[in-house]
Amino acid sequence: MLVRLLSSIFIFSFLLTACSEPEKHSTATSNVQVLPFKFAITGLDKQRTVRLYLPPSYDTSEKSYPVVYMHDGQNLFDDLTADKGEWGVDESLNALAASEQFEVIVVAIDHGDEERMNELSPWENKRFGVAQGKEYMDFIVEVVKVYVDNNFRTKPERLYTAIMGSDMGGLMSHYALHAYPEVFSKAGIFSPAYWYSQDVFAFTRFSKAKLDSRLFILYSDNEGDGMIADNDKMYRQLKSQGHPRDNMKFKRISNNEKAEQLWKNNFSEAVTWLFQKQPAF
Question: Does CATH place domain 24-274 in 3.40.50.300?
């Protein structure tokens, strides 16, 4: 009798807990899609999901659009797939389309889970292991971009092509702007993990971005003294190398926002700033 009573109490408690947890549902807008097959990363024996945001006017116009390539695709559009809350990239861009007629395509490449840090750095880290960033970026440029440009109405030229990411994705976006200057002319670099490898500073010195390239670099006091020092160092270096001040914006936030909220709140400003100086859409 006692066993049956305890069992009933356990089941009731379990059901009560389950019912009290809010059910998660998709928060992606209707103009976000997951491409229908996974893309192979040559040289790494991996496949990767790619998500696509198309502007509100895409289906009713014949226009071609600039493109923003973004890392950590799981975290950009949908709470169902986001690690710690989505960025709301789709909602932000839909609002910009309505208020400012600003429209871009976003191509979002999913991260590699436990191998994310390796994939998002072209430099080895003794703690985290081998670097796979060169192969990952070649995959974006030679596979994903080629597919997107051939199947959607994009403006494929470098002046209309940006890359954005946060943390390790910020490090990779910095690298991409300098390593692929014929492909990208803009980089949104949020909370960049410059700490992962100090090679980023030597690389930036010897692989300079084109002078018309635009960098929006965002970081927060809440992210620690190392983040502040590394970004100050990068600013001084780019300035000493002669990169035009008008083409780089370092934005330091002094509040206690969590990382995802920080990136979400500053996405619209960053993406519109990056595309300010270019021919009309």
Answer: no
